[in-house]
User: Which sequence fits this backbone?
């Protein structure tokens, strides 16, 4: 006779998510999640699987690590980490393991991020004021800058294939307007938009 289902079974359940394939297609990073029996809190770490051999190893050892993303050339792996219950930040480490370094220090944490195609920039979304904004961080250790207005909501965006431009949509009033920013030759902080596309009827690019 099968045993009855009890609440304690939750401690034996594990979940997987956030699959990320390396650029060369040989490695798969993913999030392994479970519930800690002592603290009753959710825990998650980044796992790395070698697709050739099928072997798997624990890559990180934080309390809440998630959302792994390989750098374009595959040498680095970025991920979100929450420490001591604080908002999640972007961290990075060598793709084959090692010490992790914190890249962002957003007071209210990061909830989305992306590498640029050339690996020189990292875009992330965060609440640094009353509205969500999009920020660009040079991966060489330079100073980050905001590409969205402090007055309007903006989440996410997309880099051009050559990483020269970054497109970001902002909610201005009751409509979304997409701005295109040039990153390479920027002279202002934040950089001025190259042009804007208003999706409302009758509008034209400016």
Assistant:
């Amino acid at each position: 006779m099968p045993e009855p289902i009890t609440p304690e079974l939750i401690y034996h359940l594990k979940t997987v998510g956030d699959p990320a394939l390396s650029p060369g297609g040989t490695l798969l990073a993913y999030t392994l999640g479970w519930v800690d029996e002592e603290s009753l809190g959710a825990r998650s770490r980044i796992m790395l699987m070698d697709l050739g051999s099928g072997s798997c190893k624990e890559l990180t050892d934080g309390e809440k690590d998630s959302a792994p993303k390989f750098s374009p050339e595959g040498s680095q792996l970025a991920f979100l980490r929450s420490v001591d219950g604080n908002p999640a930040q972007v961290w990075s480490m060598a793709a084959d393991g090692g010490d992790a370094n914190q890249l962002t220090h957003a007071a209210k944490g990061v909830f989305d991020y992306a590498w640029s195609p050339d690996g020189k920039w990292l875009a992330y979304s965060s609440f640094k004021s009353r509205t969500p904004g999009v920020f660009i961080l040079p991966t060489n250790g330079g100073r980050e800058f905001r590409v969205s207005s402090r007055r309007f909501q903006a989440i996410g965006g997309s880099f051009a294939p050559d990483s020269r431009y970054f497109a970001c949509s902002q909610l201005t009033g009751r409509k979304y307007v997409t701005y295109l920013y040039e990153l390479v030759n920027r002279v202002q902080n934040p950089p001025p938009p190259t042009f804007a596309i208003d999706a409302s009827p009758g509008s034209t690019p400016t």
